[in-house]
Amino acid sequence: VRLVESGGGLVEAGGSLRLSCTASGNVFSIQSMAWYHKAPGELRALVAAINIKSGGSTDYADSVKGRFTISRDNAKNTVYLQMNSLKPEDTGVYYCKAEALVVGIYDYWGQGTQVTVSS
Predict the structure, then answer these.
(1) d(CA 9, CA 49)
(2) Computed from CA positions of residues 58, 59, 64, 65, in that sequence, does the dihedral angle turn out positive or negative?
(3) Are 87 and 68 a contacting pair, CB within 8 Å?
(4) What are the angstrom distances between the C-alpha of 35 and each of 14, 22, 44, 102, 111?
(5) Is the pLDDT of residue 21 over 90?
(6) pLDDT tens profile 37-52
(7) Rounded mean pLDDT, 58-69
(8) What one-character DSSP code corresponds to residue 102?
(9) What is the mean predicted confidence (pLDDT) over 61-66?
């Protein structure tokens, strides 16, 4: 499975961005997908996740609830992260992760996309 993210950039506080993550390869093995945020000097942390195989249930970090929305377009093998009301602390690299069932669970990661929120 290969993941390619796009949509990052520079935005003022209060603004919006939409990130995209498109999967290719053995996409039928993907069980769920998620976005992670790595702020400068900090560990990578889960932002939002969505179930791909059933129901499309979602989960969010408390810090982004009400501001970020994760969604999927199965026909395009793409997951989106709509980010509204951005804050300077949202700055960092955003990574897409796919959890795939390939003789056991395996995580695939994208290369990351930079988001910078100016105050």
Answers:
(1) 21
(2) positive
(3) no
(4) 20, 12, 10, 21, 12
(5) yes
(6) 999 999 999 999 999 9
(7) 98
(8) S
(9) 98
